[in-house]
């Protein structure tokens, strides 16, 4: 299998460079990429050290490393671009054409993208995170009037990370409520949810996967048995159907995908 | 001020497209961008509806909208690319050159980037999220042996979202401990932290900003007074210095920036 050393370089956090380069690399499953993330390359000295690192690797390994960069500073970028590597500039590739279209110059200023820009947004995000923490796992159901979405599902189907993600990423007020044994004896919505049917979003999961997850910490328990997992998933899905609750199968989805899907399907208003 | 309608379009979650286009747009503060995110454009029908939306806006408004897309499907991309708009393909721009360099064809498969790829990673992430929840706000300090980092700071300086972000984004075990009044009467580390000095990371914040945040919910309380906020921040910083705890000022930083900074500075090993 072909192997390529890959460097993801940024002036700041590198999160944007990381996300796009990850998408791009995943299109080449035939190649083994050895990826190193190098954020905060924000001085000439750091750029030179990074350049030396890349050139050393290129000399050692033979094939040119790949470099994905979002470097706003021209001097830093010129240094990295001079490396013995294949250079993909995720930023500059588009800035030139955008300047032409918009007929204005770009500010070429670093790090605007993830900065705290306004207090209202910051505050919305913090409130959402606090709400998700307070209402995690069926706590404080009397706060449901303030929820924008209430994520429901069997234990370990992914409710908590989904709600934390919705709050952190989008500033959405997301509560979550676990469907327990006793809730699942009937397909009727549990009492705390009955008045909030329009805010519910269900999670389901492949029972075998659920069993695998539960067995990690509760191996041997009835809770982690195949029978329990199959029963709970089947009953939860029956409840979703009978209550017309939209739901999503989380088995092959990441937290990001589940969050983006719920945001989209439930037409939630993002504040960030 | 020049205004431009902008569409961010993707086959899947659109998170990558969103991150990069946001970075790019922030380089043009002279322009007001009206941004609409359109994720999950994954069928020919949805692509045609999107095309019509863009063309309607172009006709209505005059200036061509900007379109940022990560569309893997060739048919969908061709439809969107035919819009009366300026089309920036964040994906295809790089795939062609990468195919040449690597001398292999891309798989052109959609949505690999955020998919759950392996159970070990999923499990690491869930464990980290559970750890962050369990050890939030000074709870369960006896779990600190398992922490990779313990974030400390005055109340409302940003500890909880930082730890949740570190756990969700990087799978890092991050606990947080609030420095309270009584902790801050001395510059010595509070007892629960004393044996974990090498894991600590401090947060500080501009006292006026802290006051603004606290007044949102506790206006009038001593807790939210200028004097209290100034005292707590000064004492916390004195504690960081005397205990040689690295720290970061969160005033102008987003949660993403704080998280990436701590990961980098504390040299934490990411699992995701």
Topology of this protein?
2 copies of one chain form a homodimer.
Chain A: E1 2-10, H1 15-25, E2 31-38, H2 44-61, E3 66-70, H3 74-81, E4 86-89, H4 92-102, H5 119-134, E5 149-153, H6 159-170, E6 174-178, H7 191-194, E7 200-204, H8 207-218, H9 226-242, E8 247-249, H10 255-265
Parallel strand pairs in A: 1-2, 1-3, 3-4, 5-6, 5-7, 7-8
Helix pairs in contact in A: 2-3, 5-6, 6-10, 8-9
Describe the strand arrangement of the main beta sheet of chain A, using strand numbers. 2-1-3-4
Please provide the count of β strands of chain A: 8
What top-tier CATH class of the largest domain in chain A fits best?
A: Alpha Beta
Mean pLDDT of chain A: 90
How many domain regions of chain A?
2
Name the pair of protein chains with the most residues at their interface, and give those residue counts. A-B, 72 and 72 residues
Largest sheet of chain A: 4 strands, parallel
What Rg of chain A do the Cα atoms give? 24 Å
Structural class of chain A: alpha/beta
């Amino acid at each position: 299998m072909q192997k390529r050393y890959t460097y993801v370089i940024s002036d700041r956090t590198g999160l944007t460079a990381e996300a796009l380069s990850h998408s791009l690399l995943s299109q080449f499953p035939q190649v083994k990429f050895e990826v190193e993330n190098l954020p905060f390359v924000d001085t000439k000295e750091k750029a030179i050290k990074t350049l030396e690192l890349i050139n050393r690797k290129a000399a050692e390994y033979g094939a040119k490393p790949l470099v994905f960069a979002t470097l706003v500073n021209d001097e830093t970028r010129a240094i990295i671009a001079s490396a013995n590597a294949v250079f993909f500039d995720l930023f500059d590739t588009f800035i030139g054409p955008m300047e032409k279209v918009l007929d204005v110059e770009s500010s070429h200023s670093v790090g605007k993208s993830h900065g705290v820009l306004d207090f209202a947004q910051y505050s919305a995000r913090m409130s959402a995170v606090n709400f998700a923490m307070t209402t995690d796992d069926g706590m404080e159901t009397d706060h449901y009037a303030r929820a924008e979405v209430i994520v429901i599902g069997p234990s370990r189907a992914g409710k908590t990370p989904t709600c934390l993600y919705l709050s952190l990423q989008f500033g959405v007020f997301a509560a979550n409520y676990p469907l327990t044994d006793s809730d699942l004896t009937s397909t009727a919505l549990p009492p705390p949810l009955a008045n909030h049917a329009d805010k519910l979003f269900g999670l389901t999961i492949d029972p075998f996967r659920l069993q695998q997850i539960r067995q990690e910490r509760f191996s041997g328990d009835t809770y982690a048995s195949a029978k329990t997992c199959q029963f709970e998933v089947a009953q939860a899905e029956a409840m979703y159907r009978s209550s017309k609750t939209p739901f999503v199968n989380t088995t092959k989805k990441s937290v990001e995908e589940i969050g983006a899907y719920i945001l989209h399907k439930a037409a939630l208003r993002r504040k960030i």
